[in-house]
């Protein structure tokens, strides 16, 4: 038995790394120039990838480790890379989601005794070509810290979860088989600096590999660059620990120069990198038997006055925040997964990524170099929960505690060092971020000082460095820490005031703006950025729903969030706030980002359009514009614009047609499409669109000139028309039956609906509305009065709507007018109590009988649309199914409505059903779930669709955004005065085989 004794470094704040190499630039050596230039690191004979299945043993606490834990047999395996909590069926600890609070007591630097850990073990037989070389082991990401043992000898310790740790293990290796053991501990003293908003997961979550290096090898290289202010010259200087050979190749493959790194490179008319055209030089280092490739993006990034410039063009960051997140692997992000994330963002015209809130996999930046993304590269620091002395008791000064004390300075600077040194050669990095939500203090200044000492021209970002947060001690000023004025969720009026002051001190940058749950505010923010030069950019919060995949109940896969694993404390649903679902299918908000970020602007007048190129460096020559004119849902004229070589920031006018007088509902639709396929999209991919309303004349509806037959019984009234027999319940003041061609179309009586299944960011609105018992509001019928005219039968209902324990919130009249041709017009004239909260919605709900699966509408589509989320949609005649119309949010909420519809129809497979029409517009929705089902169901995979179809015809919805949670600005046109409720629409039996919905 071997008794292992080693120091518990994870409990000792004086030790950050033991046995580790100094941080260096990321690179991989190859045995030949050909392999180096091909660039797949797994093909290097000097690299041995250790990913795959490892032996695994889990411990509930570090204190439970046996003296001979390295010698005990293993019974289980664990995939590397992955997070052990994601193996939910194994019970290795539980995934825990927290936004800002720490999962353990704030007793710095101490950590709980109940501290889970796991031992990973792998037998390794070294390749023959490793013999005689120095062998290093690289861990690109381990949460939160690890102890390394090689052949049962302690070889080192390291922390900082999202940064590379490299250890020279040559002295511990032997010929033949070697045993590598890695003890990963869930929490260490460094965990106090890793309080990010994500699932708290543990394990070896990035790749592990061995590198064989020649005895006297190149340890590090810094490829410094300087581009002249007129962009005509560039200088490359090398900072290395030894002189080596190099070859520099231009982006078009021409050899530019060969030499040694003790020489500088001078380039005339250099090809510069930008996100629109990411041109890269290839630098090949030759060091005896090693060939090391780099892709070099030459650029000039600077701040002049309060404006940020890239290559002398004003910077505009159309950005997003991105966490590492995989529904099965946890924080592990395989190569294809990373690339797909970037493809998704390219397809949405996104050009900037903030690596919230830590450095990503080093290869991620290689892909950003190649694909064209400007990166705000963020240090692995967040101490958000430090501001809570007691739960929900926020203390601004306490928030800065770790950022201000001497004992933590080394830890802060270490994280800045590991960030900068690893990524310093990447052209895509335009800002270096000192972390996130950690108050502010001198330790941030020390981080700034370190990065500036290595690169004086570096642009530093840190959001909490301004004085408006009371996290800075009286009399101290840390504005110098950040080169940009950064904010999260600042009101637009505040931002305008900053941008319109006379002497703007710094460029303004939204490191976080909007929340993906609503995304309607994107457009107002982007309009502001495009108006003001000093507003250099903004990054949406955030890209992906974070969730853990489990076996689904009614689907193959279900997704779980905070609180689903008994994790206490937790922040429940805040983790499912992305633009894409966990499996990367697109949420509706994604299309709002895409619309706001599209690279052109179109204006229309008298048959002509003007196309403005919003790009700064490239033409629009890679796209074409397909246009069509649709009248009453049918194309009557179309064409294409292919002469699109419009200069950057230039514009061009095109004549589409001679100005004609249009009638009916006539729309001009213009779609921007890719001329050719690229690595991120197919040919004809739609990059954006524009719509102009040419005419919106509604055809006059000819009503019948005869009245229907009426049978008035004690409670029910039967109205017989040409196309339907209606039954009205006088006692309850509502329609109870529609029979058409012998078939019942209503499964339940219609009802007024003012409630919805709210999103979790609307807790403030929910509480207000529940105070008025809106969630349980029911109709009270005071009277139902029947009258007959020459052409119709009219039933007038005097009603109120209210819930338990409160006064009714709505009082008014409903009028049901039946005509002999089968049409039913329902009109509402009601008043909301002035003191009552804003309604979530107001409309009528109809539950239709089984088989009503097909739907069509004219309104904003094809995705869901609401008052504050519809600009990514356009008005057209859309056809779908009720099932396809549904949006499967991880936690079911209100979804799938279509804003400003003029009609909506639901039919069976024979084309028979009902159509709802209006002379104005309404919100139309058809689904297989009631509001009550959506609200009570916790997870999408637990939903059981009804065989019936629920149709909602709403006067209006309140906005999706949260009024208080994220300081959202509400544009005036999105505010709804719901004190007066006037609403009218028609219900008519419909046969899509013979009826024209535009004429009903």
Notable features of this structure?
Immunoglobulin-like; twelve-stranded antiparallel beta sheet; eight-stranded parallel beta sheet; mainly beta
How would you portray this structure in words?
The structure is a single chain. With 1000 residues, the protein is mostly beta strands. Among the domains are: 205 residues, Jelly Rolls (Sandwich), CATH 2.60.120; 81 residues, Immunoglobulins (Immunoglobulin-like), CATH 2.60.40; 98 residues, Immunoglobulin-like (Sandwich), CATH 2.60.40; 290 residues, Beta-galactosidase, Chain A, domain 5, CATH 2.70.98. Helices cover 11% and strands 37% of the residues. The chain contains 13 helices and 61 strands. Strands 50, 51, 52, 53, 54, 55, 56, 57, 58, 59, 60 and 61 form a twelve-stranded antiparallel β-sheet that branches. Strands 32-31-28-27-26-35-34-33 form an eight-stranded parallel β-sheet. A seven-stranded antiparallel β-sheet has the order 1-10-9-12-6-3-4, with no helix packed on it. Strand 53 and strand 54 form a beta hairpin. Helix 2 packs parallel to helix 3, helix 6 runs parallel beside helix 7 and helix 9 packs parallel to helix 10. The termini are far apart.
Put the structure in a nutshell.
With about 1000 residues, the chain is mostly beta strands.
Gross CATH architecture of one domain: Distorted Sandwich
Tally of DSSP helical segments: 13
Strand content: 35-45%
Radius of gyration: 32 Å
3D shape:
globular
CATH class of one domain: Mainly Beta
Low-confidence region ranges: 964-969
Secondary structure layout:
Layout lengths: L16 E2 L14 H6 L8 E3 L2 E8 L16 E5 L15 E3 L18 E9 L8 E6 L2 E2 L1 E6 L2 E7 L5 E4 L8 E9 L12 E3 L2 E2 L3 E6 L7 E7 L5 E8 L4 E5 L5 E6 L4 E4 L12 E7 L2 E7 L4 E4 L2 E4 L2 E2 L2 E5 L13 H13 L4 E3 L7 H10 L2 E5 L9 E3 L2 E2 L1 H4 L1 H4 L4 H15 L5 E5 L8 H13 L5 E2 L23 E4 L3 H8 L8 E8 L6 H10 L3 E7 L6 E4 L5 E4 L27 H10 L2 E6 L2 E6 L9 E9 L2 E8 L9 E5 L9 E10 L11 E11 L12 E4 L3 E5 L4 E5 L4 E7 L2 E2 L6 E3 L9 H9 L6 E11 L3 E11 L7 E10 L4 E9 L8 E8 L5 E8 L12 E8 H4 L12 E10 L4 E16 L3 H6 L12 E9 L22 E12 L9
Helix pairs in contact: 2-3, 6-7, 9-10
